[in-house]
Each structure stands twice: as structure tokens, then as C-alpha cells.
Design a protein that fits this description.
Blueprint: H1 3-28, E1 30-33, E2 46-50, E3 56-60, H2 70-73, E4 82-83, H3 93-108, E5 113-119, H4 126-146, E6 154-160, H5 171-177, E7 179-185
Parallel strand pairs: 5-6
Antiparallel strand pairs: 1-2, 2-3, 4-7, 5-7
Length: about 190
């Protein structure tokens, strides 16, 4: 066997090994859709997945909604999105005034609960941005509690950089994405 044939055989063995591994991994995980929806059925966005050890795990397969909701949509009178400086989880005086207006909205709508979404621009790792988004949402929650809103009416979630309000890498786009969005729930 010459050097070219040996090199070819080595590449062929690597390719076969990779393909075998991929097929083997695929056989360990199988997905099945829920059986219908409505009364007596299951929600079609919930899927059951068989894990490698033979167990079963339910997963939510519904697509993530990227449309502007809550205060980001601008369609809820009295609710405003608050914005943060780069790499900060504290609010400026102007943004605190917006937060005060949001607290007043909650007081007027006493039956409503609120989800506070923490968001970031795309700079930084996914892990860092999820953590920063969480710090932003929790800081806003604490400020709202100090203004008289019950903790039981507020929940937080971080989307990090995953749900930008504005696409692009301009200073304006990144500033719009460093925010806390307020989504009412009944």
C-alpha cells in the first residue's frame, strides 16, 4: 500500500466512524407528537421524547414568539419599557420615572400580574447575557416591590440577547435591546 492509499483509507475510516456515531446517536433519541389536542387529547405543542436511558421526557416544541409584546409593543397605555446603560442593571433617574408610571398602572389594574423580561444587546456570551438579563429583571422587580407592588404579582424571566427589539449593531439598536419589558398577565 502506498502513502496515497494509506491516507485515503485513514480518511475513509474516520468518515465511517463519524457516520456510525451519528446513526447511533439518532437511534437513542426518538420523538413523537402528542396525540391531538382539546378534550381527551394532549396539546400538539407538547412532544414526548425518549431519552438514551429509555425514559420519557415531555418537551415544549412550540416556536418562540419574537413579536413585540407588553410594553415593547407600545400598545398598552400606561406601560413603558425601561432601558439600561451598557453592562448595567441599575436605572437612570429618567428610567425610574417610567418605572413609577408602570407601578401606577399595576395599582390601577389590581387584578393583573406582571412578567418582567430582562433583555441585553448581543455583546457578551450567551451565559453572561442571560445572567445580566436576570439581574436587570430582578432589580426592576425589587424597585417595584419597594414602591408597593406585592411580590406575588411579579415574575421575572431573562431572554439575554435572544429577543432583540431592534436588529443591527448600531449604538441605537444595541441601546434599544438593553431593556426590561413588562408583560401583563391575568
Amino acid at each position: 500500500m502506498n502513502i496515497k492509499e494509506g491516507f485515503f483509507m485513514k480518511k475513509l475510516l474516520i468518515a465511517i466512524t463519524i457516520m456510525s456515531f451519528a446513526v447511533g446517536c439518532k437511534s437513542l433519541r426518538s420523538k413523537s407528537d402528542g396525540a391531538g389536542s382539546g378534550v381527551g387529547g394532549t396539546d400538539s405543542t407538547i412532544k414526548s421524547e425518549t431519552t438514551a436511558n429509555g425514559g420519557s421526557e415531555k418537551i415544549d416544541a412550540s416556536p418562540m414568539n419574537f413579536a413585540a409584546t407588553g410594553s415593547d409593543s407600545g400598545s398598552i397605555a400606561g406601560l413603558q419599557t425601561v432601558f439600561f446603560e451598557y453592562d448595567k442593571s441599575t436605572l437612570s433617574a429618567g428610567e425610574k420615572a417610567k418605572l413609577t408610571a408602570n407601578v401606577e398602572w399595576l395599582k390601577k389594574n389590581s387584578g393583573s400580574k406582571m412578567t418582567i423580561e430582562g433583555h441585553c444587546d448581543q455583546r457578551g456570551s450567551n451565559e453572561y447575557n442571560l445572567s445580566l438579563g436576570e439581574r436587570r429583571a430582578n432589580a426592576v422587580k425589587q424597585m417595584m416591590q419597594s414602591m408597593g407592588v406585592s411580590a406575588s404579582r411579579l415574575t421575572t424571566v431573562s431572554f439575554g440577547e435572544e429577543k432583540p427589539l431592534m436588529q443591527g449593531e448600531s449604538d441605537e439598536a444595541m441601546a434599544k435591546n438593553r431593556r426590561a419589558n413588562f408583560v401583563p398577565a391575568n
